[in-house]
Write a structure and sequence with these properties.
Mean pLDDT: 83
Largest sheet: 6 strands, mixed
CATH architecture of the largest domain: 3-Layer(aba) Sandwich
Radius of gyration: 26 Å
Oligomer: single chain
Helix content: 40-55%
CATH class of the largest domain: Alpha Beta
Strand order of the largest sheet: 6-7-5-8-9-10
Number of helices: 16
Strand content: 15-25%
Structural class: alpha/beta
Low-confidence stretches: 1-6, 146-162, 431-441
Bound molecules: guanosine-5'-triphosphate, magnesium ion
Length: about 450
């Protein structure tokens, strides 16, 4: 089955990219979007040999753009030896078929390209299953031979049209069966992850989110000093990576880096990446990283916010981190940003000083949300004491006069305090976070 659906590009292809300017669209914006499409293709190793832009009043259902323009595409592709034509918009399966016939090229749309990148970058079984589902769902209605003829073409055969109706039916059925199997597998992963998350319920969780390539992994690396390699590629990270921000803090603060977002992220992908994105949904705080060196960064903010909304994570508190300021060298910009987005951080993820500042903001956020309290725990209750050592920031430890109770003055989240409720002596209003940490005896 998978062989029939194999769409992987070899990496040496040349492509012509196509964008459509509709009434009300700004030409510069389309230009930026095509540049983004070009970097998506670049990530796949596909070389773009030319761009075609058409102004249109409306899109035509049969081949999306005008017939004259299709001829231009065909000529440009032929003169630059491009075998691929990539549209910035989503195309319907019949449109792809018509366009392929007319241009004698393999026609792909943006969704297909994004899926291809995801599929190349998937490393864990979970990510692989998630991508495969999205890809199969995308390909199902397109199983008319368009993709498999690409295979044949790559194999050196001539450009043939279609495969037998019967074969298509068989392939569709097999695709559906495979999707069902993969979904079952994912459900199992989800359950395992939910159990893992439960065991971390006393910890504070920060998820780093943002547009792809905004610098999430770089910031994660700086904040945790871990060796997660950032890459100048779109969708370099597909799995969730979780690390403690500083192993000494109590409660522990866990940081997770995850898959980036993009304009028109295929819906199938958002749905199948639910397991990965669960980490975001359960975070106490989101660090929303924005690449401010991109001229239309506001669009990226908007896209990220709407994907978060779609995932049901729109209400989680967010700190905006305007990243890559070092690339701009604009002394006024930080002030403008702070005025326009109160509470934001302006930073460069490659500057140690800036990363420390981000960390301070995270601590400050939680400081506001921690409770300070006094506990009295029987000396022989090792379970409760160990919970205090693991999950609370201990300000002071003492013994009562008889020496049969340990007295803690400490801070923790509401969830932790709820678990220690039997030992509470008092809860204070004001709270503060210190770096003083006592280690477990
Ligand atoms: N100059 C500069 N480059 C940065 C900064 N932050 C990240 N980069 C670079 O930007 C590129 C993308 O960074 P990543 O950290 O991989 O971005 P990401 O958001 O994790 O990307 P995906 O996982 O692909 O969604 C890398 O080449 C980084 O070295 C910064 O503050 N300044
Ligand atoms: Mg990343």
């Amino acid at each position: 089955m998978e062989d029939n659906l194999e769409t992987s590009l070899t990496g040496n292809e040349k492509a012509v990219i196509v964008g459509v300017l509709l009434p009300g669209d700004l030409p510069e914006k389309l230009d930026e979007q095509l540049t983004e499409l070009q970097s998506l293709l670049d990530t796949l190793g596909v070389q773009v040999t030319g761009r075609i832009v058409q102004k249109r009043q409306k899109l035509t259902p049969n081949c999306y753009i005008g017939v004259g323009k299709v001829q231009d595409i065909k000529d440009l592709a032929a003169s630059t030896q491009a075998k691929l034509v990539v549209f910035d918009h989503a195309l319907s399966p019949p449109q792809v078929r018509n366009l392929e016939e007319m241009t004698q090229c393999v026609v792909l749309d943006r969704t297909g390209i994004i899926l291809e990148i995801f599929s190349r970058h998937a490393r864990t079984n979970q990510a692989k299953a998630q991508v495969e589902i999205a890809k199969l769902e995308y390909l199902l209605p397109r199983l008319s031979g368009a993709w498999s003829h690409f295979q044949r073409q790559r194999g050196g055969g001539s450009l043939q049209r279609g495969m037998g109706e019967k074969q298509i039916e068989i392939d569709r059925r097999r695709a559906r069966e495979r999707i069902a199997r993969l979904q079952k597998q994912l459900e199992q992963f989800r359950k395992e992850k939910a159990t893992q998350r439960k065991s971390r319920s006393n910890e504070l969780k920060v998820a780093i989110v943002g547009y792809t390539n905004s610098g999430k992994t770089t910031l994660m690396k700086g904040l945790t000093k871990s060796q997660v390699a950032p890459k100048d590629e779109l969708f370099a990270t597909l799995e969730t990576n979780i690390k403690t921000i500083d192993p000494r803090t109590r409660p522990k603060i866990l940081l997770s880096d995850t898959v980036g977002f993009i304009r028109n992220l295929p819906h199938g992908l958002v749905a199948s990446f639910r397991t990965t994105l669960d980490e975001v949904n359960e975070a106490d705080l989101l660090l929303h990283v924005v690449d401010v060196s991109y001229p239309h960064y506001e669009d990226h903010i908007h896209v990220t916010r709407s994907v978060l909304e779609e995932m049901g994570a729109g209400d989680i508190p967010q700190i905006l981190v305007f990243n890559k300021v070092d690339k701009l060298n604009d002394p006024i910009l930080p002030r403008i940003l702070r005025a326009a987005y109160p509470g934001c951080i302006v930073a460069s993820a490659v500057s140690e000083k800036d990363v420390l500042n981000v960390r301070e903001h995270i601590y400050a956020f939680f400081r506001k949300n921690l409770l300070t309290f006094r506990l009295s725990i029987p000396v022989d209750n090792h379970n409760a004491q160990s919970m205090v050592y693991r999950n609370c920031l201990i300000i002071e430890k003492d013994y009562d006069e008889e020496g049969d109770h340990v007295l803690f003055h400490a801070q923790a989240t509401r969830a932790t305090l709820a678990k220690l409720r039997n030992y509470i002596v008092s809860v204070e209003d004001e709270s503060f976070l210190t770096d003083k940490v006592e280690s477990e005896p």
